[in-house]
## 1
Amino acid sequence: MTKESIYGLTRKEMEERLVEMGEKAFRAEQIWQWLYRKRVGSFEEMTNLSESLRQDLEDQFNFSPLKEEIVQRAEDKTTKFLFQLADKSMIETVLMYHHYGLSVCVTTQIGCNIGCRFCASGLLPKQRDLTTGEIVAQIMYIQRYLDARGEGDKVSHIVVMGIGEPFDNYDNVMRFLRIVNDDKGLAIGARHITVSTSGLAPKIREFAHEGIQVNLAVSLHASNNEVRSSMMRINRKYPMEELFDAIYEYTDLTNRRVTFEHIMIDDVNDRPEHAQELADLLKPMRKLAYVNLIPYNPVPENPYRRSKPEAITKFFDVLMQNNINCVVRKEFGTEIEAACGQLRSQYERKRRERRQREKA
Ligand code: SAH
Ligand code: SF4
């Protein structure tokens, strides 16, 4: 059996485990220091712990459940990592360099059951949720990769926008957020972390009550139910009226801004009348609504194509004229299969083809 990852425990849980092991609770803080400040890769290096404790930890936990399969670094330094997990599943994590810092895009599930028509991740049904340790390990692997480069770089931002629907793996994602945010550990500021959801309304309500300052992004992608349901079947379960009720509960409680992601797909959701409809929908939220226009990254398996640049500009102009905060998202590492999930789905396709060839 695979041992659990030491990265899967919150500091509080680590204290409890140590007490169960007959140790003093304060050891948790020491271990935490080794894990997240000195960022060692083995228990052996934790030299202020007794040898017997190090052995006990070794018996119960391992460090990273990730095995590096492929690393691709693009000209703009965007780096994609394809990892294999203990059960041989593959996940994808991306490091991006911005003017304001370094961000990592993490994966939360193997596959995704939401099945949005435009998305490469939704092509493969969910095999399982990632554990907390598997999500934290993605950040730690990349931070240690940066440490080894010796340039003093630190992961400063996190976007939970990789493969999977984070709110369909809610508890592990929340624990992940608390671990990376812990001020004795990586201490990545909650305001530097964004969680993106396809719109699971009940979970948005739950998130509103967490008392955590993490940013919320909603994959809206359309200005009315008809278009949204044609792209995202989740909209039939939680139509936009219900989604916005939940979003208003979130903004009423937190007074925090919500980012609306809107991928730009040619002739599906990108006409000027769609932009006006979207502006009318978001106007009541005033300055709390922030729209991110994302040029669509075509996936070979579906008929959607990217909007023409003129359509994106026009859409942007209509939103601005209506005083809706809006940006067109910069693209990262386009030459290395930039859209999350694409590297993995391509790899899986090749792996399937290879297996079929081997069988034949
Ligand atoms: N499941 C969550 C988070 C992961 S997807 C969600 O859907 O919000 C992160 C973002 O990338 C979402 O807004 C998603 O709609 C978008 N996306 C998915 N496939 C894309 C593609 N091929 N091109 C551009 N954006 C895409
Ligand atoms: Fe899942 Fe998000 Fe892709 Fe939809 S866009 S299939 S929710 S990962």
## 2
Amino acid sequence: MPGTKASEGVAKGAEAQPRKVAEAAAARKPQAEPAAPAPASKKPIGMGKGLEGIIAAQTSICFIDGEKGILSYRGYDINELAPHSTFEETTFLLWEGHLPTRKELEAFKAELASRRELPPIAFSVLAQVAKSMGPMDALRTVVSALAAGRNDADKYSVEVDREKAIETTAQMATIVAYYHRLRMDREIVHPDPKLGHAANFLYMLTGKKPTPAAERAFDVALVLHADHDLNASTFSARVTAATLADYHGAITSAVGTLKGPLHGGANIEVMKVLLEIEASHEDPTDWVEHQLAKKRKIPGFGHRVYKTLDPRAIHLEKLSKSLGEQAKDTKWYNMSLKLQKAMKEQKGIDANVDFFSASSYYVMGIPLDLYTPIFAISRVAGWSAHILEQHGDNRLIRPLSEFTGTLGKRYVPIEKREGPLVATKKAN
Ligand code: COA
């Protein structure tokens, strides 16, 4: 079946049943009852490698126009939210579908702030793994452990999911900050309920209250990373949730998926590239030329959906510039600009969300390997919104695959088999 890049329709639960099955079922019906035509949604609806161009869910949470570079949460363009909103307000919007009133927002912020401390079992697991696991692996492990001791661990409903979501969103930030302090043999900095989510995370991480500018910059970064429709980790979360597995299982799947360098792990790789260019003393334009000639994929560029500049990168570029100016260290911002220009000119590829996050976090003094965990502490808002939506109108997500192997093989007793294993044995 040829691949297709066009969106070809949505099958709830990603079902695309072969026509023959539907026809056979129709043929078994009594003659008096005319066979109904196979529903359109039961026909196979094409294959795109990596599910490119396939609509696998309906959602009212997030909208992306990859050609025009538009991203909106619940109908609010990201350009409206980034300058005005906060992580707490955006999270409320993603979960509830509307912007909160002042009273709703204050209640939501207070609830989030009151749930930040880790339960003893989760803290103990974190303390055990902090020095022997990387931050995303530790986050994945401890998120899973957040379910320990809960008598509703296996339950799901809008109320149960929402309660777990608020607690997990509050606690994931704590896990990342505590992880860093534990691995560095520094004293834990307990959450400060008077601080907002962004400021409190920076405080728990560094032990210092951030400046209003740093707090705002970090808050904007959290708003920009909060959701992105069916990105790989959100898809993971929805697939897990659709089996009616529990909320923590779905978030654990999502954290595992976010880690990869083709997804959330790219922000770390971007900073490694900037440091590599710095160490090579090469001009970024020449560096791009040499790397592209070696067919290297440059992290922070390209996107499955955006065919133009990622709208989030526009805001993150501004953050990178202003944070660099405040830190009196614009070297990384300037190098990023040159790299961006060279990639556009030489490969025609634009920057994505990870590109300017890297230089922004670097000048804030955040350790490189925490960039992806920071992505996670924001994206948990989106994952949770999608789990709530999935559980609200669930169907198992189970697509088809196209078999490309050989059928009809006969079982051969082991002593009669010849092949690579026999050859290897002889060679030895
Ligand atoms: N650097 C160089 N070339 C790139 C590129 C990059 N970052 N991203 C895509 N391309 C090129 C590919 O080499 C390919 O070119 P070709 O047709 O000449 O072979 C073409 O663009 C299509 O790329 P492909 O890998 O098929 O796109 P995809 O939709 O499968 O992958 C990404 C999307 C995001 C995985 C891919 O762009 C990538 O690996 N980017 C770097 C990692 C990154 O920043 N990830 C975070 C995404 S938010």
